[in-house]
Amino acid sequence: MCGIIGYVGSKNAIAIIVEGLKKLEYRGYDSAGIAIFDTNNFHVIKQKGRLSALETRLARARRPLKGHIGIGHTRWATHGEPSDINSHPHVGNKNKIAVVHNGIIENYKQLKERLEQKGIRFVSQTDSEVIAQLAEYYYDGDLIDTVIKVSNALEGSYALGIMCIDEPDTLVAIKKDNPLIIGVSGHGHFIASDVPAVLKYTNKVYYLNDKEIAVLQKGAAQFCNTDKEKLQKTLETVTWSIDSAEKGGYPHFMLKEIMEQPKVIKDTVNSILKNGENKNIVDNFDIKRFNKIVMTACGSAYNAGVVAKYVFERLCRLSVDVELASEFRYKDAVVDEKTLVILISQSGETADTIAAMREAKRKGAATLSIVNVIGSTIAKETDFCIYTAAGPEIAVATTKAFSAQLALLYVLAVRFAVQLEKISKETEKELLSEIKALPAKAAEMLKHIDFIQKYASTCIGYKSIFFIGRNIDYAIALEGSLKLKEISYIHSEAYAGGELKHGTISLIEENTLVVAISNCGRLYNKIMSNAEQVVSRGAKVLLIGNCQDIKTNDNFSFIGLPKVSELFSPSISVIALQLFGYYVAANKGLDIDKPRNLAKSVTVE
Ligand code: F6R
């Protein structure tokens, strides 16, 4: 979704903002723009399309722009088509105030009508322009007062960066239901929608809370609330390294992030088992007071929940429902104070997951989140938050954050099972040592990369690819299918193997590919019989599993996985599935890190 970067300081703001916009590209966007205060005026350059188009425009400017304060934006269209005029920053009629906005202004039509009646002329179709026009309308010499009035008038969600021509040394920011951070460096201050945008310059950040205002100048960052009362905020240090937000020699972030998984699993497991905040929460969590667990999330995070359902139910003997957050929020869910609702989210900012969290809280349920981005909305608003240690995930298609979620959920399931007295200390020890062995098994799995790359190169012509599995293999088949379709644009569905004959098998014909996953030894014969059923109808099968002595032929290929117990096997199979999806897309020459129409963090409904 949209991205914001802003800077005020002693360096050239243009270079910093363009660099920041590049780091925000991964969020998904269709246009980009920049506003700089240069000499006595704002210079606004905005452009539909990729950032390179904006850079070309900047390079062609009659004279090179320079200035020490500016704002930039990557837009993912919601109100109004992707176009130059609809891109941000937006400037009011008087060219006095420039604004970048993430979020949606729900009452923009009413505000626009009111302003139009006063003779103010709108130029774009966006909801965001109303903010710039309104700010100019209110402005009477004090930008902070103006921002307060504007925020009181707005309904909806927003993260805003605002500059005013009459106060050329000041950058003001405010947020509500949309993330915004303030970066602090020796040469100036930043605003940004997320940490990777500023990581090159600083790892010191303030996390802005709803309706807090940041007033930034070269040497000062001050905060107040909408009653203009001063706020003391804590400067936090981000542990993510700059390298983690760079490709590091890989052709795509996605491949780099796939390869990082052994380390990410290890770091996440350590963060729960060794001393630290995560460990404290897990050890002191009173699971006995709940009679039900509901996991809710979107996309891949939802798939992590489906995998976890099998693990939790098997180990804890406690009923677990898994709900899509977009459904949960509207379904009048049966949850109460005896329910533990687990929210899973990489970004911690997914609009549907946030809404599900608030709905669960409204109903009195306890909320526990599993989140990757520190200080994000879900992390802050849930009763308990356990962080995954995946580091910044840049590719739109999640890989390492998903693996971190799985690892964390496994440990949680084991710990809960002990507290519920469903497993012995002995079994706990065995299970934890299997979990600790996963990084090495994941590294072993990655050795199959050449075979997968070669096999995937033969798959780019398929119109449809199906994924099947049983029990936990079915759960991970869902993720394999999602990975493939989102980056390769090949139609794909995942089915529980036993469901094929209830309808789906009619789709199987000559030259359909079925990827079958088999890590549940006890169900091996079942999945093999499903595979035979589709082969006899003309399909080709790729079997991925830790089974042995598999005979392959032209219609039947096999990727052997390192042996891992059934419950934790998804951590290994998913790597094979991610690599498969990745190489199919790579062989099609697609923009893997930024698949069409998708955004990294879906902050609008
Ligand atoms: C798929 C993918 C998405 C996200 C989903 C939830 O590769 O990345 O399906 O998993 O949008 O996002 P978070 O985890 O940020 O809530």
Describe the structure.
There is one protein chain. The protein has 605 residues and is an alpha/beta fold. Helices cover 35% and strands 22% of the residues. The strands form four sheets. The chain has an eight-stranded antiparallel beta sheet with strand order 3-2-4-1-10-9-11-15, covered by helices on one side. Strands 5-6-7-8-12-13-14 form a seven-stranded antiparallel beta sheet, with helices on one face. The longest helix has 20 residues, at 400-419. The termini are close together. The model has no long low-confidence stretch (mean pLDDT 93). Fructose -6-phosphate is lined by residues 298-301, 345-347, 350, 353, 397-398, 482, 486, 601-602.
Ligand identities: fructose -6-phosphate
How many β strands by DSSP? 25
Strands ordered across the widest β-sheet: 3-2-4-1-10-9-11-15
Estimated radius of gyration? 25 Å
The major β-sheet equals: 8 strands, antiparallel
What structural class do you assign from the helix and strand content?
alpha/beta
* Principal-axis shape: globular
Give start-end ranges of low-pLDDT stretches. Answer: none
Summarize model confidence as the mean pLDDT: 93
Strand composition percent = 15-25%
Number of helices: 19
**What gap, in angstroms, lies between the N and C termini?**
11 Å
Helix content: 25-40%
